[in-house]
Amino acid sequence: MIPSVEVHKLFKFYGKKSVLTDVSFEVFPGDILGIIGPNGAGKTTLLYILLGIIEPTSGDIKFFGRDLKKERSSLLKRVGFASNYVSLPYSLTVEENLKIFAHLYEVKNYQKRIDEVLNIFKLTNKKRALCRALSTGEMMRLNLARAFLHEPDVLLLDEPTAGLDPEYMQVIAEFLKIKANKDGLSVLLTSHQLSELEKIANKLLLIKEGQVLAFGNLEKLFKRFGVDNLEELYFKVFSDTTIFEKHG
Amino acid sequence: MISRRRILAILLRHFYLLKHSVSRWIDLLYWPTIDLLLWGFVSLYIQQKEGSGIVYYFLGALILWNILIRAQQGLAVGFLEDVWARNLLHLFASPLTLFDYVLGLLLYSIFKALIASLLMGFLACLIFDFNFFAQGSNIFLLTFALLLFAWSIGLITIALILYFGQEAEILAWALALLFLPFSAAFYPLSVLPPLFQDIARFVPTSYVFEGMRLVFQGKDLPYYFLLKAYLLIVLYLITSVIIFWYAFKLSKIQGKLTKIGE
């Protein structure tokens, strides 16, 4: 099976400062990869590199077996992105923002699709509201609606559940799981909500100071490190600086 | 490959912004109107004293200069709107190409220049009995040259903002003005001191405005005026495209594209 995302020997330096060092991993259709690590680990930088908005110093990135560098525009048509840290223009309405992105992703029958995603993310009643009037949680849901607008095959999410009510957090986690299992959606998400992440992720990438400390199947990692849950794994891996395991 | 829908997306983004913003409409309509009224009446007063046709030179120069400013700002301020809204990240995380983005901004800048010139042309006709659009095809060649030059300044402005960050945003309003003294827009080139005249030779707008005065005098526009203007503009454009492209690439290498506007 061709991996949805393939990262091979990725390095990123800002001057002499190393941000990512020799990062390699693969994500297959249906995988939900949780990327975890302390602040400043390089998680967000990794996502931005995967989106082509930060250029890596070296390394290869492939989506569906095709080189991102060579086919960025056509590959990103199949990739969605949402971040808790980036909002949409406040001066535009929810619908206007979605229309713009429907055109950017060349979504067919976009009016119908906009109504669909608004319904999925419970924003139908906010369709004509200015984005500045949205709460943090509503803005994040709008970001997710935007990310799903073009029905991507790969979804990159940066702290997607931060700022969400527990009720919505649950709904979105379930939605991602269904999409991954039924439609083969690959999800790469960073999150500090470890208990939520544990419920949906089947793979983990643990990074610290730009280096991969562990990568692999969730259950196998639990077994390898002798832990019962993600929180224990987190503290075990990130408090023990001698651990340096690649591609476990 | 160019995508019409992605270019439309960039246009829509700015039209929606305009739709919801009274201050942006004021910026688009108020300043050109005030400029035209103020300088129109000043030149009318001078004309009454001096008895020359100065009012037409002033009005023509005002309209042309406003076209340049609006076109340049359409590009540079259009980019800044995305910086202020922290929208660049979302835009460039999509399939949008740099070419689509710039093309969308260029079309928006044409819209802004068109609105300003139509408004000023209408008012000049109504109040000062001066029909800017009836000056023949040469005026359109001069206007097009100004548009191209405006875009080259706009691209350099964006490049500087990308490189130096939001601190450089003042350039979106200031950089074009740097060329104004050497453009001889509101006075003939001959009034400039020799050093300024030498500099003006390398400023394409000086040929445009000298040409405009010839057109308003009913004289033929010498072909070398247009040729020199367009040759210089092509040079400016090539340089600005290279600088812009390099600044954008550098911003991706240095991670600035994701940080700008924070």
Strand ordering within the main sheet of chain A: 6-7-8-3-9-10
The percentage of residues in β strands of chain A lies in 25-35%
Major sheet description of chain B: none
**Oligomeric form of this entry?**
heterodimer
Mean pLDDT of chain A: 91
What are the secondary-structure elements of chain A, in order, as H or E?
Answer: EEEHEEHEHHHEHEHEEHH
**Overall CATH class of the domain at 1-76 and 202-248 in chain A:** Alpha Beta
Q: End-to-end distance of chain A, in Å?
A: 20 Å
The helicity of chain A comes to 25-40%
At the fourth level of CATH, the homologous superfamily of the domain at 1-76 and 202-248 in chain A is: P-loop containing nucleotide triphosphate hydrolases
Number of helices of chain A: 9
**Rg of chain A from C-alpha positions?**
18 Å
Structural class of chain B: mainly alpha
Main structural class of chain A: alpha/beta
User: In what range is the share of β-strand residues of chain B?
Assistant: under 5%
